[in-house]
Every structure is written in C-alpha cells, then in structure tokens.
User: Fold this.
Amino acid sequence: MKEERMLILNMLNEGKITADEAVSLLNALPSEGCSFDDFARSVKTKVEDFAGKAEPKVKKAAQDIRDRSVEAFDNIKAKIEEKRAESAAAADKEDGYAADSDEYVDITAGVDEDYDESTQRDSEMERNEDTLPVDEAEPINEE
Assistant:
C-alpha cells in the first residue's frame, strides 16, 4: 500500500490532483492491517452512500429536462400552427375568400375598364364569328 500512497502524493506534488482529492484517495486506501474483504465492504458502503445521495438529484435533473422538453415542443407546435394559419389565410385571400369567413370576396372588383372593354370586344367577336386576320389585329396591351 505504500506504493499507492506514494503515487497519490506524487500526483499531488505534480499538480495533477488537488489536496482535497489526495486526501479522499488516501482515505479510500485500505489501512495496513485491513483485509481485502474489509476494503471491498468499505468501498461498497461508500458507493451505496454516494448513490443514495445522488439519486434524488438525478431524478430532479431528469424531471427538469422532461419539463423543459415538453415546454419547448409545445412552443414549436404553437409556432407551426400559427404559421399554418397564416399560410392558409394568405392562400384564402389569394383565392378570393375572406380569411376570417367562408364568404367569397370579389377580387375582380375595380379591375381596369380597359381590360373589361377588351374582354367585351373579344366576346362580341366570338358571337359574331368575325375574325380579323393576324396582320390587321390590334396588339394587346398587357400592362
């Protein structure tokens, strides 16, 4: 056991461990007259004590992690639902439906009269079955 004690003291001297760590290690070593069985029982007792003290802290940490994870997932779900609702409202608006009702909104209201006149002229031509040759046709003003 002297070799182990010297090794611990050398590690302390080299700065590899602190004085508190050295004391803990030296106390963990069996005494000169101690049998291996006594040493094993001593280590087992210390491990059980440590586990008993650590268990509540580990359980609390695990519960904290669970609670934070649930909260984070709920926040993500809420953001997704919010974005989905915004997207649906934008799509409804584009399709001519009011975002907050099922009523159709006339999205053609207020369209330029030039467009209306052009459409009306095209409709009249179709009814009369009159067609203009391509070279006589008026160019379409697409604005």
In short: The CA atoms of residues 5 and 26 lie 7 Å apart. Residues 54-107 form one domain. The longest helix spans residues 36-95.
